[in-house]
Amino acid sequence: MAIFKRMSLKQGNTSRTSAAELTLRASIYPLCLVTILFFLWGFSYGLLDTLNKHFQNTLHITRARSSGLQAAYFGAYPLAFLGHANWILRHYGFKAVFIWGLCLYGIGALIAWPCILHRSFGGFCAAIFIIGNGLGSLETAANPYITICGPPKYSELRINFSQAFNGIGTVIAPVLGSYVFFKYTADDTKALVNVQWVYLAIAIFVFLLAIVFYFSPIPEITDADMAFQAEETHANTDVQPFRKQYRLFHATFAQFCYTGAQVAIASYFINYVVDTRPGTSSALAAQFLAGAQGAFAMGRFLGVALMRFIRPRYVFLFYLTFCIVFICPAITQRGNTGMAMLYITLFFESIIFPTIVALGMRGLGKYSKRGSGFIVGGVCGGAVVPPLLGAVADIYNDTAPAMGVPLAFFIAAWSYSLAVNFIPAYRDPVDKIGAAKIGLTNVQNDEEGARVGEKAAVEREETHSQEIHESGKY
Q: Are 52 and 70 in contact (CB under 8 A)?
């Protein structure tokens, strides 16, 4: 029983801990463990994009109706971000949310089994809604945890590097789908059986991972820790009431618009290729989607490298601007040209989501946990924009003109990248945290050395004074 006492999930949130000043070395294990979660929901998200087209084929439903998968998946996120997961995060801590999210994910994957067996699209959407609650819970905790677990100076690098494994998951899922879902075009039953086995394997894996998280001694980061970081860097904006955190709400708006556009493009990528590239099968289009997601992952690794030498807010503005530039030709072009434009768009999408999270959280201090729920909650845009794109595609009976929908949402999100680069009230907290020396081992050693040296100098001065006094005495 002693081991279970030590692993208690109940954590305080008002006391300072050593987690506020975690060094790079101390943060490696928890970051590696949490990075597995990014791969998990990248895989789940990529699987969903492939299933979108698969259900159109096997269940003979329209593009607009198939977007019910995305609506169920991302529609669950606000319930997690602003409801149960956020409440658990603020009252129990990060580890409790990780375990809760994994359990919901596993339950949803198990429920998907009978729904697929009975070819119930509505039932499968309900299972996806539960999975969305699980993954929404994981994102509620994982994104802010990666951002604040370690030196604040490298928060954008950490979250983009971890999110790169999300991109790897989105590459693997369409490849799997091309062989598992679309291979048996003459035997839909066989394909659906394979889908069942995929979800059973997911359920087993996530339940085992929940056990690993329970027994792992990962550091808990409190609101007091975040307030300390904000005060130390003089970037704290938490002196204002939460309702006046306008930077936070703008970041949430940008996240809503950007994520909606990203999800819409990925969800209808296979439709786009089949519609605009004559003779392309759904299986081949799924493999092209895997290539596009590979470009997405490459863009994220390159973004991490660039952020090592260039301010993250500059890289953010550059990437989002080129998302707008390259989605435009995809509306009018056809064949390989149009598909290439979407490839490049996905490449530049890569760093946007995690960078909005990192930049939006900077300077929030004691509001960090609560605020992160709002920013990550912007993911619910993925429930709104894909149905709009699907409806426009049904009107034109062509997916290409419907790419004007994500273009409009990219432009709306662009407003935040402009603000964080050119408006001082946005820019200054970001830059102050970026210059912070908290958690940097060398800096801490230098400061410790300076304190020791100063103490030694004082002691020498006192000894010298005492010797003079004693020599005068005799």
A: yes
Tokens linked to 295: 């470009």
d(CA 454, CA 189): 77
Read off φ and ψ for residue 257, nearest 5 degrees.
-70, -45
* Residues near 335 by beta carbon (within 8 Å), at least 6 away in sequence: 276, 277, 278
Alpha carbon distance 94, 100 (integer Å) = 10
* Distance of alpha carbon 323 from alpha carbon 317, whole angstroms: 10
Within 13 A of 394's CA, how many CA atoms are on the CB side?
Answer: 14
CA distance 281 to 184: 13
- Residue 474 domain-assigned? no
CB-CB neighbours of 101 under 10 Å: 30
Give me the number of domains the chain comprises: 1
Q: Is the dihedral of CA 70, 72, 75, 76 positive or negative?
A: negative
Q: In degrees rounded to 5, what are phi and psi of residue 262? A: -60, -45
- In the predicted model, is pLDDT for residue 444 greater than 50? no
Q: Comparing C-alpha atoms, which of 305, 313, 301 is closest to residue 251?
A: 313
d(CA 178, CA 344): 22
Q: Are 94 and 148 in contact (CB under 8 A)?
A: no
Encoded amino acid at 301, one letter: F
What does the pLDDT read at residue 189?
A: 60
DSSP state for residue 200 in the 8-state scheme = H
Cβ-contact 274, 178 below 8 angstroms: no
Residue 453 lies in a domain: no
Kindly state the tokens that stand for 248. Answer: 């936070």
Q: What is the CATH number of the domain that holds 199?
A: 1.20.1250.20
Question: Looking at this protein, which amino acid is placed at residue 337?
Answer: T
Write out pLDDT tens, residues 340-379. 999 999 999 989 998 998 888 887 777 777 787 788 888 8
Which residue matches tokens 């005495």? 473
DSSP secondary-structure letter at 410?
H
In a domain, 232, yes or no: no
Mean pLDDT of 207-221: 86
Instruction: Calculate mean pLDDT across residues 200-226.
Output: 83
Q: In which domain, by residue range, is 302 found?
A: 20-216+241-435
Burial 243-266 (b: 16+ CB within 10 A, else e): eebebbebbbbbbbbbbbbbbbbb
Helix runs in 118-149, H state only: 121-148
CB within 8 Å of 201: residues ≥ 6 apart: none
10: left (phi over 0), alpha (psi -120 to 50) or beta: beta
Ramachandran angles phi, psi of 182, nearest 5°? -100, -5
In a domain, 460, yes or no: no
Among 37-46, 81-90, 223-232, 364-373, the minimum mean pLDDT is found in 223-232
State the Cα–Cα distance between residues 272 and 400, nearest whole angstrom: 6
The CA distance from 154 to 41, in Å, is: 23
How far, in Å, CA of 202 to CA of 42, rounded? Answer: 13
